[in-house]
Specification:
Blueprint: H1 2-19, E1 20-27, E2 32-34, E3 45-53, E4 64-70, E5 80-86, E6 93-99, E7 105-111, E8 118-126, E9 129-134, E10 137-143, E11 156-159, E12 161-164, E13 167-171, E14 173-182, H2 188-194, E15 206-210, E16 230-232, E17 236-241, H3 260-271
Antiparallel strand pairs: 1-14, 1-17, 2-11, 2-16, 3-8, 3-14, 4-5, 4-11, 5-6, 6-7, 8-9, 9-10, 12-13, 14-15
Helix pairs in contact: 1-3
């Protein structure tokens, strides 16, 4: 019996080692990931990411930016897609913004979660509607009969920043992981099915995918579509524990994570065996 528990201990240690996860860490001052060019060409798409906000964003307007693809100019007729985990400090809203190349801007808003927590953000453009989900749960939708496209005259494509008119208007202060862009609108079932899992990179419809593993020198696009990103102004990869479901195997102390404290629990149990 003791040999069985020793085996379980070794398995748990192995599980803990493999659960260490790498994320993009941003200081909210001026760092971000610059992407090489336009990613979204269709008028239907999905943007997803795990986000951990340490506090208010930086830049001129303090916008906590997840992703942007936009013309440098503002105003009607300048293409843009922006997704913020928090629109501005103190507003406590997250925002999905769209502007077609022949139309004007529309913004879909909803409450943003507290700082210091991991949450899964999803923005969807489906037909004439923009939709946002948080942690796989539908939050809000807005009718948007867009004109033109979202890919004309693109100057900035990035993770973690909003830049226009030559200035930085928003920089995320926190961490990002599992950033995904699809060329079709995901269903709620698809969001829930994949939000806690990594992807292979070969999924149908996957335009870009950054999990920040093996990405110390550049943000590798694991969709193999070539959207490798450049770390700007000190953006770094940090090691953290994977966001885990409370029922995950090996969570012996019930805190929703597999970590060293679970190893301690198992060791104490083994030592108490007669």
């Amino acid at each position: 019996m003791k040999n069985l528990h020793i085996f379980l201990l070794l398995s748990l240690i192995s599980s803990f080692a493999s659960s260490q996860n790498h994320v993009l860490s941003l200081d909210g001052i001026d760092d971000y990931v610059s992407l090489p060019g336009t990613i979204v060409y269709s008028n239907e798409f999905t943007i997803e990411a795990w986000v951990f906000m340490n506090g208010p964003g930086g830049g001129i307007e303090g916008r906590s930016t997840i992703f942007e693809q936009r013309d440098d100019q503002t105003g009607c007729g300048h293409s843009g897609i922006t997704y913020f985990s928090e629109t501005r400090p103190g507003e406590q809203t997250h925002r999905f913004g769209l502007r077609g190349s022949e139309g004007c801007s529309v913004g879909l808003f909803n409450d943003s979660p507290p700082y210091g927590e991991w949450h899964y953000y999803t923005a969807i453009k489906e037909g004439d509607f923009a939709k946002i989900y948080l942690d796989g749960v539908f939050q809000a939708a807005l009718y948007y009969d867009h004109l033109g496209n979202f890919s004309t005259g693109i100057d900035h494509v990035s993770i973690g920043s909003q830049i226009h008119d030559g200035d930085g208007y928003g920089y995320l202060f926190g961490m990002l992981d599992e950033v995904r862009i699809w060329d079709y609108p995901l269903s709620e079932e698809e969001i829930l099915e994949n939000m806690n899992n990594t992807l292979s990179g070969f999924e149908i419809g996957l335009l870009a995918y950054w999990d920040f593993e093996n990405s110390e020198n550049e943000a590798l696009d694991k969709s193999y579509n070539g959207h490798n990103g450049t770390y700007m102004s000190g953006a770094v990869i940090a090691e953290t524990e994977i966001v885990l479901e409370p029922t995950i195997w090996g969570d012996l102390n019930g805190d929703g994570q597999v970590n060293v404290s679970d190893v301690v629990v198992l060791i104490e149990h083994i030592l108490n065996i007669e």
